[in-house]
Specification:
This protein is α+β, with helices and mostly antiparallel strands. Helix content is 16%, strand content 44%. Bound molecules: fe (ii) ion (FE2).
Length: 159
């Protein structure tokens, strides 16, 4: 009985399924030799999913995460300056809340990694002074601004 009621009203309480092809989404510049390709912006929970791409030698400046990060390396290799492991294709990475790191790519080949993020990313200098912050809203803004600037039809990734 309860299951039947849930089934009958499921569409009212859960999000419908979605599918995108990554070829229909742009690489949005994030820094020197660094781009992200957004896949989902979950504004309710402050989470987002993006591919990260680094060509040639590049880095994502030192930063701290307020929440966990999950990553899955698809192409190339990368590492954190603060760690001794190297992520390779097939590496699954967990970063706990509060983790501070600097993502480095040596430039021998292009790197692409799928990241599932939430909360806030705080970019810091070497003395732990805050430089800037990113979250699901700033990432969404960057995506929409890039689409506007390049006259691209922005797919609605807010779900
Ligand atoms: Fe990070």
């Amino acid at each position: 009985m309860v299951n039947q009621i849930l089934h009958d009203h499921l569409a009212e309480y859960v999000l419908p399924d979605r599918v995108h092809n990554i070829d229909d989404l742009p690489w949005v510049p994030q820094g020197e030799q660094v781009w992200f390709k957004p896949l989902r912006f979950d504004l309710v929970n402050g989470r987002w999913v993006n591919l990260l791409r680094v060509t040639k030698a590049g880095k994502v400046n030192r930063h701290r995460h307020s929440a966990q990060v999950l990553g899955f390396c698809l192409h190339g290799t990368w590492q954190y300056a603060e760690r001794d492991w190297i992520a390779r294709p097939g590496s699954f990475v967990f970063e706990p809340p509060g983790d501070v790191h600097t993502l480095l790519v040596d430039g021998s080949e292009e790197m692409q990694t799928l990241f599932l993020l939430e909360g806030t990313i705080q970019y810091m200098d070497d003395d732990n002074r805050l430089i800037s912050e990113d979250n699901v809203f700033t990432k969404l803004d960057r995506y929409l601004a890039y689409c506007r600037e390049h006259s691209l039809n922005a797919l609605d990734l807010r779900y």
